[in-house]
Every structure is written in structure tokens, then in C-alpha cells.
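fyi for ur records
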Amino acid sequence: MTTAPPHLDESPYERAQQSPEFAGLRRTLRRFVFPMTAAFFLWYALYVLLSAYARDFMGTVLFGNVNVALVFGLLQFLSTFVIAWLYARFADRKLDATAEAIKTQVEAEIEGGAK
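which gave:
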């Protein structure tokens, strides 16, 4: 009994995952996601630590009923939207074309194999 070579047993998805293009795509994504996640976590941790240990500072009234803690809290929401916007720009410039090319290649292999 003969068996097919290992590369013929792989699905188009597995071949795409093992391709240099896919590895580059993952590397590029990680270069954005890991530092941005760390920066956001540190920013959030600063907010939590200041709220817990610098109550006088966070309670400082800036104007009316608005204090530093409220501004920091609102900036948490703002930073979330800014990160989402930055990611959308990054993905558009650095990821989408490669991802689309990989997708097209996989779809072509599937269509070619189904005939």
C-alpha cells in the first residue's frame, strides 16, 4: 500500500498556514498587537493604581464637578477608540492586501481541487 506524500494530505488551509506569506502576516500583526496591548494595559494599570493609592490627586477638582479621576476614566474610553482606529489604519496599510492574497490562493486551490 502506498501513501500520498505528506504535502498532498494537507488541506489548502494547512498549506496556507505554513506559507512564508502567512508567517509574515502573523509577524506583522504581532508587531502591532503586542506593543499596543502592553501600552493599553500599562495605561489602565496607571489609572487603577492612581485611583487606589493617589486618592487626593484623583480627587482634585478641575472645574465644576469634574475631577482628575473622571477625566482619566473618560480617557480610557477615548484611548480604546483611538487604538481601534489605529488598528484599522494599520490593517488597511499592512495586513489586508496580504490576507486577501492568501485567501484568494486558498479559494483557488479549493476550486481547483473540487473539479
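The chain is about 85% helix and 5% strand. thats all i got for now
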